[in-house]
Hints:
Blueprint: H1 2-13, E1 22-25, H2 35-48, H3 55-60, H4 66-78, H5 84-101, H6 110-119, E2 123-127, H7 133-142, E3 152-153, H8 166-175, E4 182-186, H9 189-197, E5 201-205, H10 212-217, E6 222-224, H11 227-244
Parallel strand pairs: 1-2, 1-4, 2-3, 4-5, 5-6
Bound molecules: calcium ion (CA).
Amino acid sequence: MIQEAISLYLEKQGHTLLSPRAVLFDMDGVLFDSMPFHARAWKEVANEHHLISTLEDFYLFEGRTGASTINVLFRRTFGREATEEEKREIYHQKSVRFHTYNNGNPMPGAAEVIAKVKEYALLPVLVTGSGQRKLIDKLQESYPNTFTVDKMVTGDSVKYGKPHPEPYLIGLEKANAAANEAFVIENAPLGVESAVKAGIFTIAVNTGPLPDKVLLDAGAHLLYPNMESLAKDWDNILKEIKNQKG
Ligand code: CA
C-alpha cells in the first residue's frame, strides 16, 4: 500500500527517489482542532448576509483565502464578485466569531507526529493559508521549539493561496528542499490539490466530515483517518522509503 503509493508518486512526478528531509505541515485541521469553529463562524456570517451555503461548503473551501471564499459565495448567490468593502467587512465578522468560539485545542495525535518528525531528524515547516495571528502564535505553546519564524508560510506570505501550488512551493524554498525531498500533511481537498500540484508526496488526514473520496480525488498519495493513526504508521512509511533505496 505505502510502497505502491510511493511508486505511483515517483512515476507521475518523474523522480527516481523519494528522500524526505522536510515535512510541510498545514495548520487548521492538522495541528489545531479548529475547523469546526471556522466552519461555524463562516456559516453564521454567511446566513446573516443571505449567502447560499451549507456547513460542508466551508470544509470544501478550506485553504482558500477569506476573500476567495466570500467571492465564491457572492457569485453563487448574487452572480457577481464581492466588493473590497464587502470582503473586508464579512471577513472581519467571521474572524471575530472564530476567535470567540475557538478553544485553541491542538489536534489529537499531532504532538506524536511531530515527535516522530524530530526522531527522524526531518525539518518541520508550517504552510498555512491562515493569517490568524493568535493561532500562529499559539504554535510555540502547543508545539514548543518546533516551528521557527523563518520556517513558516502564512496567509500574509502568499499571493494566490491554496489550491494554487504557490504556498507549498514557498514552503519547499524555506525548507531548502526539492519536491521529492519533502512530505506534506494536509486535511483539506484544496490543500491536497495545492501540495500535489507543487509535486510533493502528500499525506492526507481526514479529520473533518468530508468523505475520504474527496481527498483521494484531490490527489492524496496516502490517507489516514486522523493524526494518531499517521503517528502509529510513521515507522512503516519511513521503512518503505528506506527500502526503496535498496
Ligand atoms: Ca487545513
